[in-house]
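Please decode residue identities from the backbone states below.
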């Protein structure tokens, strides 16, 4: 055994024989234990934070992918649109295939630019996604009729984003239906029995209805027994208390007024809150030729934030804009006469803008929906 080995043995025997470790050694061990615990806790916390951040980012990316954020572009009296439109639904001829429409009427547009169209003469509502070559059947799966899965001459549809459903004006059956467009296995359900042509919905869940024969615009919310009249409703006529077949309308929630497209009086009426009579703000002339201050059967209507009125001038096959207080209109699109070319319309029905300010028109006589891009050079 070497000298070095002997010294090692003596030290080990001495350690074994001692009754307890020195206090300094114990303190060091405790510090080491506490340090290890602190490090482990920090590592776990970092892992948890990274996991939460990763999940949050994944959720946000998923939402952004399915519902793109579209900037809101202001439309005003100086806005112009390209005169050559593109067809985003249907073709230039009628048919009952899902690639075609037959006498489309009212429609609505979702945030992802998916169209929902009341395809009246096919007795159905179809969904048309961006760049799709054909639509998808949403309601009216069993053809014309009055059963749950049937429609008769639907004239309008609106998206209820809060309740993830579609509200359908089933005009031929004098009822309003609700359908879950995210679960097509569920049948539509009737929520109100009433005559209707056009419908809107506000953020408070109120449904607005135009009743063409009574000449009234009504408001109703689920749970109420009857709708309340908010404009007209006094039967047909041509004075300030009446409408003659009001089809489309626009509710301005900023000042609680309603703009009514008074079709066969060839005018637009404005009804202030609690008013007993309306105000003629556009048209109303007896002569219904195609001069820019005259209209011939007013249809779809939109009012922008500057109170400019856009209206589908059905029999003149054009879309007009009237600035607030002006009796003279401007042709927005389709001033080239009746036709099916890209710069023409035939009996336009409903109109709306997307969040980029592009103009959509239900070109009823051509059985299609046209999109006119906003002019970025304005």
């Amino acid at each position: 055994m070497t000298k070095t080995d002997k010294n090692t043995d003596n030290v080990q025997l001495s350690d074994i024989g001692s009754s307890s470790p020195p206090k300094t050694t114990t303190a060091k061990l405790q510090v080491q234990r506490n340090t290890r615990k602190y490090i482990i806790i920090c590592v776990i916390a970092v892992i948890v934070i990274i996991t939460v951040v990763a999940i949050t980012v994944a959720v946000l990316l998923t939402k952004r992918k399915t519902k793109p954020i579209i900037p809101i572009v202001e439309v005003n009296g100086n806005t112009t649109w390209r005169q050559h439109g593109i067809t985003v639904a249907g073709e230039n001829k009628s048919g009952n295939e899902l690639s075609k429409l037959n006498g489309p009427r009212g429609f609505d547009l979702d945030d992802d630019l998916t169209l929902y169209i009341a395809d009246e003469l096919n007795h159905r509502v179809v969904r048309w996604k961006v760049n799709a070559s054909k639509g998808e059947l949403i309601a009216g799966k069993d053809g014309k009729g009055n059963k749950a899965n049937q429609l008769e001459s639907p004239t309008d549809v609106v998206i209820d984003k809060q309740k993830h459903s579609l509200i359908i004006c089933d005009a031929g059956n004098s009822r309003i239906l609700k359908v879950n467009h995210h679960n097509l296995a569920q049948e539509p359900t009737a929520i109100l029995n009433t005559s209707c042509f056009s419908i809107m919905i506000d953020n408070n869940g109120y449904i607005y209805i135009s009743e063409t024969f009574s000449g009234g615009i009504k408001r109703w919310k689920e749970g109420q027994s009857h709708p309340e009249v908010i404009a007209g409703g006094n039967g047909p006529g041509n004075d300030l208390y009446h409408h003659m077949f009001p089809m489309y309308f626009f509710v301005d929630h900023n000042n609680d007024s309603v703009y009514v497209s008074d079709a066969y009086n060839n005018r637009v009426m404005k009804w202030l809150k609690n008013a007993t009579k309306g105000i003629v703000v556009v048209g109303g002339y007896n002569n219904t030729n195609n001069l820019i201050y005259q209209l011939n059967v007013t249809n779809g209507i939109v009012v922008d934030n500057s109170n400019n009125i856009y209206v589908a001038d059905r029999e003149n096959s054009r879309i007009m804009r009237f600035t607030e207080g002006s009796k003279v209109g401007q042709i927005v699109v389709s001033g080239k006469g009746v036709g099916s070319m890209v710069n023409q319309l035939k009996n336009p029905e409903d109109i709306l803008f997307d969040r980029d300010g592009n103009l959509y028109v239900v070109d009823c006589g051509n059985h299609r929906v046209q999109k006119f891009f906003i002019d970025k050079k304005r």
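Observation: Residues 23-66 form the longest helix (44 residues).
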